[in-house]
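User: Okay, second chain of the day. Same drill as before: sequence in, structure tokens out.
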Amino acid sequence: MKQGDEMREKVKFWLTDMDGVLVHEQQPIPGAAELLQHWQDSGQEYLVLTNNSIFTARDLSARLAASGINVPEERIWTSALATAAFLKAQAPSSTAYVIGEAGLLTALHDAGFIMTEANPEFVVVGETRNYSFDALTKAIRLINNGARFISTNPDATGPSAEGPLPATGAVNALITKATGKEPYVVGKPNPMMFRSAMNKIGAHSENTAMIGDRMDTDIVAGMEAGLHTILVRTGISDDAEIARYPFRPNEILGSVADLLPSK
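Assistant: Same drill. Structure tokens below.
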């Protein structure tokens, strides 16, 4: 038995990134559907994690299904859901001014939050393709007036067919420059996102693994949360990228297909 196999013997719960691990540009990565089916058939608890806060879990489940990946919506944990869970624990039934899309708005609504522009306790910034000057100005003024600044994720850019798009992290930086206030960011690489995911499925760090394709989010957050970390090379990380960091994942694999049981 290989060392990686021995280490995985203790794993009872699985967390996995979505883009670059299960799908790449809406195409399924070979072995991903089979691994998810194996977990389902063997009764292993798992969650698919994503920093995407635009879509609801139901939307993402449908998008994955269109790519040939079957993931029930209750098996998807987004930065929007993690943010809503964090804020509910901080201040249940509170108020928020929100910049974001359906994924974030729905998550906060389901957590009992009231959306308002009148003296909200929180300003919450998530990903959207429709940032407006008026909305950003209002967020800046509310933060200057004492609202707490929360963000779903730190990703500065997002992908598109035409090239990178400015994303949540870039907007966070704009607001920070105008207010002097840094946001509390809930999504990866904050281990908070992993802890909230583990709470959802009743997992513990000593028997949970995280599969990701990025050293700067998936692996560092998994390591800091005390998880068994597995880097796959189907996303953005190659040897040069891995070498940039002073830490290493527990395992480096070609793809999730390498996690399928041997026949």
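The CA atoms of residues 151 and 185 lie 5 Å apart.

User: Thanks, on to the next one.
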